[in-house]
Amino acid sequence: AQTVTQSQPEMSVQEAETVTLSCTYDTSESDYYLFWYKQPPSRQMILVIRQEAYKQQNATENRFSVNFQKAAKSFSLKISDSQLGDAAMYFCAYMGQGGSEKLVFGKGMKLTVNP
Amino acid sequence: GAGVSQSPRYKVAKRGQDVALRCDPISGHVSLFWYQQALGQGPEFLTYFQNEAQLDKSGLPSDRFFAERPEGSVSTLKIQRTQQEDSAVYLCASSLGQRETNEQFFGPGTRLTVL
Questions:
Q1: What is the dihedral angle through the alpha carbons of A49, A82, A21, A51, rounded to the nearest 10 degrees?
Q2: Cβ-based interface (< 8 Å): residues of A facing B
Q3: How many domains, chain B?
């Protein structure tokens, strides 16, 4: 079974600084998708960024970018120019290529942004 | 509506009671997912529908949990004879059902407390 590990339960960053959130996963599949989801205190989960495993180029969405290392099974999220609104729980998630489209989530990481 | 809605937002049940949680997905979304999120944890997959067909129910923790989506739109998650360990936030998500655009859109969740 696939597993997703987020080893840092909490992090903090100063406003306008850069922070990197780490995630590792375990799978025997060669094709899959990886996601970072954000869950603000209101609890509605929203997608931050998505990466297809077959693409070597790292995904980027404005201030958010990933460092995808397929061989190391590592998928970290970099947030540049951190803003107060970035404060939330961040979850790394995995979706396999075949079968169910279910997401396998890590335990999450709480990000605090200090003004 | 514009997003996924869930009702009720909060539910308190006495141990042994039956509960029903409702999910209204985004109009036109083929796939619908239920996840269980315990306090301080990442969401865990319960079950998945494609239209009215329940394609994966491998995450349902016991036969007390039952989900349906009879007309391929609204879904209900029913928990019979609730127990304290069922206390969690139950998240519903929907997607277009195509792997190329596989973003899952989440509802606000139903917080279930079993006394």
A1: 10
A2: 4, 33, 37, 42-47, 50, 91, 93, 95, 97, 99-108
A3: 1
pLDDT at position A7: 94
**Residue B36 belongs to domain spanning:** 5-114
Which CATH number belongs to the domain containing residue B85 in this structure?
2.60.40.10
Please write the tens of the pLDDT for every residue from A18-36: 999 999 999 999 899 999 9
Residue with tokens 């519903």: B92
All structural domains of chain A, each given as residue ranges with its CATH number in brackets, are: 3-97+105-114 (2.60.40.10)
Residue in B33, B40, B106 nearest the CB of A44: B106
d(CA B115, CA B112): 10
Residue B101 is predicted with a pLDDT of 67
- pLDDT for residue B1 is more than 60: no
User: For residue range B9-38, what is the model confidence (pLDDT) as tens digits?
Assistant: 999 999 999 999 999 999 999 999 999 999
- A86, A79 Cβ separation under 8 angstroms: yes
